[in-house]
Amino acid sequence: MKTKRFTGPAAGSQKYDLLTALAVAGLSGSPGFQTSMLRLVALVTARYNWARDELTVGQREMARMWSVDERTVKREIKRLTTAKILLQLRPGVRGRVAAYRLNIDEIHRLSAPVWDRVGPDFSDRMAKAQPEPEAPLPKVVHVAFGQSAGGSEGQGARAEPWGRVLARLAELEPNLHRNWFGGLTCLEDTGGVLRLRAPSAFVAQYVQTHHLRLVLGTAQLEFPGLRRIEIEA
Asked: How far apart are CA 222 and CA 195, in angstroms?
């Protein structure tokens, strides 16, 4: 699916509709789900960065906002990420606050059965606002000359935990994954440095210049102690 961005003249009403969808989905669920959605709506309303499409709030601030302790915050964030309502972009390491993104596709899926309870105008707007399916792109085959047919590309790209990193990137940024990240393979992880191989020097340079922060933050979820990523062709 194409990632939904809230930009343009109608962005304000689209954000209100999304918050309404979260609220009515919560109200139709169990008491625990109602509490989770109320907390999320308060958090998004107060602290979501729509320009960057991410949420970066410390656990202490969340606890104060929700009138709970930090252990409850950890459990709540775990529930929201496990349900894939929130997608984690970067972990909270070395004093840095963790970053999350709303999973618009999942919010639409959860709330769709109760759109009509708000009204037909709301149902119509939400149906039109659903992310459009992506048009298929031509398949690009990268040939690594000098490698045998059973080389490390197929194994390295999907080997754990790098395979989980690729899966997260595909979920967070499907277009970027298809065009830039999918061809990256893991060479080694040592001393807090993750070495990757790109299918070409151009891809290596482009990812390092434009998307290294995203790849590093996502990889830190699977590689504890990771400090740096090096990409070679």
From this structure: 14
pLDDT (tens digit per residue) in 167-182: 988 888 888 898 899 9
Where exactly are the structural domains of the chain?
A: 11-129, 152-232
Structure pTM?
0.66
Integer Cα distance of 231 and 209 in angstroms: 11
**What is the fold, at CATH topology level, of the domain defined by 152-232?**
GMP Synthetase; Chain A, domain 3 (3.30.300)
Q: Note the pLDDT tens digit of each residue in 188-198.
A: 998 889 999 99
194 pairs with which residues across the strands?
189, 229
Name 177's Cβ contacts closer than 8 Å, sequence gap at least 6. Answer: 166, 169, 170
Record: fold of 11-129 = Arc Repressor Mutant, subunit A (1.10.10)
Query: Do 229 and 212 meet the contact criterion of CB atoms below 8 Å apart?
Result: yes
Separation of alpha carbons 149 and 81, rounded Å? 38
Q: Who contacts 41 (Cβ-Cβ below 8 Å, separation ≥6)?
A: 19, 22, 23, 26
